[in-house]
Amino acid sequence: MFRTYRALVLVIFGLPTALTAQGNSAEHCAKALIQDVGYLDMNESLSIARFDLFSRSVARDTKKMFGITVPIYGVPLSAEYEAAEKLRERYFQNSQLDWHYNRSISVATQTLSQNAVEAYRACIDGAHRSGPRITVYDAKPTEMTVTIRWLSPAVAPTTTDDVEVLVVGGSTNFTFPSSLTTGSTFGFVITREADQDVRIVANIASDNDNIFVSAFPPAPRFPTHYKVAYDSSLGLKAGSGKMPVISGTLSVFGPKSNNCGQNDLSNCQTDENGMLSSFMVRNCDEKRGNSASSPLVASEAVVDDNQNRMVCKIVGTYFSNGDFEEH
Question: At what angle do helices 26-37 and 114-125 cross, to 10 degrees?
Fold first, then answer.
């Protein structure tokens, strides 16, 4: 699959530095999670969920206060941070799922390793939070691995016979322990239908934890690039090319005119809203022409009174899941 990427620069700290006894802000922990993964791919639902988790948690006025480079694939090189937000919004609008905050957390974390998920939970809750803590990791469409750890509060008994684990929306053959000692950990596998959400509840010693585990979302399918045909009355050879739907440019250098030694320049362009426009420059006589951005599939830039022009026309669309549709 064709990919472009932009380096999103974030003020992100590695997960080990995120662990504190008091817990951290959601923004801090989301940044740490992204850094631990090392990249985002806006053509994948898991990365879209991670980006959503970060976008929900970070303060609007600090979104551009970045510091460490994390590649974002699927975002035009010429686009800013907002381009990734537009892709996320487009995916959510076309998804059959209700993308609430807990779904984003689940999709963003459930396929990661046990260490990564436990570090994220510790970052959010605090490394030494008492009571049960449920960790879901290494998930696949029809099964997931679950670990439950119990820590007794400092002034409470260190053993308990009050143990209850509930699994709603899935099943397991594991026999849950009837008693626990503080610090105890037990793990098991839950099976589920591929499109089934699961909720896990652990009631231990009058304290509890519960985790929502999202069904695997379908692969994103939204337009990412256009196939654009171009033609010009200035002697430019007609052809076609591929450019991003958002903030894209397809540049074609035209023939030299009037022996001035400078190429004419013709562009097909899309703006931040995906609107198509045409642009052309005759460098020898400094004639310029451009069309207004339009939602139509074709645009024409007229450069002079003789109606010399550059025409751009969308003739196909590439989608995030690899599909291509001719227009």
Answer: 160
Q: What is the largest CA-CA distance in the chain?
A: 92
Q: What is the CATH number of the domain that holds 202?
A: 2.60.40.10
For residue 275, the enclosing domain spans 223-326
Q: Are 221 and 325 in contact (CB under 8 A)?
A: no
Q: 279 and 201, same structural domain? A: no
Residue 254 is classified by DSSP as: E
CA distances from 75 to 44, 138, 211, 271 (A): 12, 27, 32, 13
Task: Please give the structure tokens belonging to residue 270.
Answer: 């899309």
Q: What is the pLDDT of residues 167-225, one digit of tens each?
A: 999 999 999 999 999 999 999 999 999 999 999 999 999 899 999 999 999 887 878 88
Q: Which residue has the tokens 């995120």?
A: 18
Report d(CA 32, CA 11) in Å as an integer.
9
